[in-house]
Every structure is written in structure tokens, then in C-alpha cells.
Amino acid sequence: MSVIALREKEIAFSAEERDLLKHSYGKPYRIPVIPHKPWQKKPIPIPKPIIPQLTELVRERIKTGLYEQSTSSYTSPVFCVAKSNGKLRIVHHLQDINKVTINNAGLPPHIGEFVEAFSGRACYGLGDIMGGYDERELDISTRPFTKFETPFGSLQLTRLPQGATNSVAAYQDQMTWILQEKISENVAIFMDDGGIKGPRSTYNNQALQENNLIRTIGNMQ
Predict the structure, then answer these.
(1) DSSP-assigned beta bridge partners for residue 176
(2) Per residue in 164-207, pLDDT tens?
(3) Phi and psi for 90 in degrees, rounded to 5?
(4) Which of 172, 188, 177, 176 is nearest to 121 (CA)?
(5) pLDDT tens digits, residue range 99-148?
(6) Where does 18-128 show beta strands of DSSP type E?
(7) Backbone dihedral region of 203: left (phi > 0), alpha (psi from -120 to 50 degrees) or beta?
(8) Residue ranges of the domains in the chain?
(9) C-beta separation of 195 from 114 below 8 A
(10) Superfamily (CATH) of domain 22-220
(11) Which pTM does this prediction carry?
(12) Cα separations in angstroms, 121 against 24, 112, 202, 220
């Protein structure tokens, strides 16, 4: 807790406080594409009852720099889905850009291997990175591919888009690069979840009281 208190100003507690990663941690991401023609897709009609909430969401994202004005010849639709808390989430239709994207074959770690890496630790924690995709800048040359229509006119994304073909691989690579000095002894990364590993423990070489069939690997050997 003392470390958190000391670095309090480095932690974002709201979207307004969130900033971009330094380029030494992750250069602006450029979506690699094959030769293609620009697409123009019609907007998906937004139900009138949710337009005020959508408008406020777009206004907030303009304010925080996630959206910027666009004069691109591309156009893709957006739509909204309800989150579990009843609020709206804006979803960008990226099927057209995904069709022409050169695939990055990188994958996140296998979930079983991720969990197993924490075995034998006296304690562990899990930290969720708030809006991690929104901290990775999208290269200026790539932004026109993401243009869409809003009540405020034509806008485009300025950050790594969720749902894009290579976003998962790009984000996983970015986080492991940033935390490379702590992997794999202290930290394990699974997308925007950072697993924090506590000290190693052998439980005094005793069987666990909760389950006398479980022993540490070292004790089994």
C-alpha cells in the first residue's frame, strides 16, 4: 500500500486521468493491410430512446481523445449493446478492415498454463488494466480505416480498436514487453489482466489441511 500511495499520481482512477503509453513502451500501432479499395457502409440505425446516452458517450470519448474528426473515404457503422450494469457500450463494426488485414499469428497464453504458473505461491493477486486498449495509440496512417458517423459528424479512432484482427496479439505483446523484467518470476500476463505472484511456499512440506491429497510438486518428487 505504501508503494501505491507513493505513486498515486501515476494511477488513473477515471477515463479523464488516463493517458497514452510512452513510445518506448509501445509505438503507435499500424494495422498492416493488403491492397484494397475503400469501403462505404451505411450506418446502422440507432433506436431513438438511446440516442441521448450514445451522444454523451461519443462526447466523452472526444473529450478524452479516443475519437477525432475524420475526412476519410472509408466508412464503417457502429452500434450499441447494453452492459450488465445497464449502460451502453459502443461497438465498432470492423469486419471490412479485418478482411484486408495481414494476420498476426501471435496468441495469448493458454489459460491452463497461465493459472498453473501461480501454483506453489504463498499468495497471489490479479490486477485489471483499466481501458488498456485505450492507452495504445493508433498510427495516423491507420486511423482513416476506422471512420464512422455520429451525431457530431464523421469521426475516427485514435486508439487500438477492440475487435480488430491483430489487437489481441498486439496488446499481449505490448504488456509482456513492458513487464519483461518481472516475467515470469513475479508477473504473468493474460491480455489486460496482470497476475502478481507472491513468494514461493512449500507449505512446510505438509499436506494441505483442506485436501490431504494435494502436496507441493517439490514434496511429490
Answers:
(1) none
(2) 999 888 888 888 888 888 887 888 888 778 888 888 766 666 66
(3) -85, 130
(4) 188
(5) 999 998 877 778 888 888 888 787 778 877 666 778 889 999 999 999 99
(6) 67-69, 78-82, 88-92, 124-128
(7) left
(8) 22-220
(9) yes
(10) HIV Type 1 Reverse Transcriptase, subunit A, domain 1 (3.10.10.10)
(11) 0.75
(12) 32, 16, 8, 16
